[in-house]
Design goal:
- It is a single chain.
- With about 110 residues, the protein is α+β, with helices and mostly antiparallel strands.
- It has one domain: D-amino Acid Aminotransferase, Chain A, domain 1 (2-Layer Sandwich).
- Helix content is about 45%, strand content about 25%.
- It is built from 4 helices and 4 strands.
- It has helices at about 15-25, 25-30, 35-60, 95-110; strands at about 5, 10, 65-75, 80-90.
- Strands 1, 2, 3 and 4 form a 4-stranded antiparallel beta sheet that branches.
- It is elongated and about 65 Å long.
Length: about 110
């Protein structure tokens, strides 16, 4: 079963990275006519909406945070179906630069 992994990407750009990765993985099948590019775009939009709901609506992550998205999928009869129970999100929170500088100064002084 194929698996999609975006690698590390800032949250504000995950949708584009996911879409490009999916198209890259399925490029041979598109060229061979086994799947339509419109189906790949539809599937990317479907999973992007779900991930947006999780990241933005539920977890309230910032655009500058970093995420890694992994999910398995299946291609059958020209259709992509996501195995949503395999969805794995890794989230790395960005720490404000001022807070980092302040902490460094506090530690250095002691």
């Amino acid at each position: 079963m194929p698996s999609l992994s975006t690698g590390l990407v800032i949250a504000g750009a995950y949708a584009d990275k996911l879409r490009r990765t999916l198209f890259a993985q399925l490029s041979n099948q598109i060229k061979e006519g086994r799947i339509e590019s419109s189906e790949v775009a539809r599937a990317a939009a479907e999973i992007n909406q779900l991930i947006y709901n999780i990241l933005v609506d539920a977890l309230k992550i910032d655009k500058g945070d970093v995420v890694r998205i992994r999910i398995d999928y299946e291609v059958s009869d020209g259709k992509i179906s996501w195995k949503k129970d395999t969805l794995n999100l890794e989230i790395f929170k960005r720490v404000d630069e001022d807070k980092i500088k302040q902490t460094i100064q506090e530690i250095i002084k002691s």
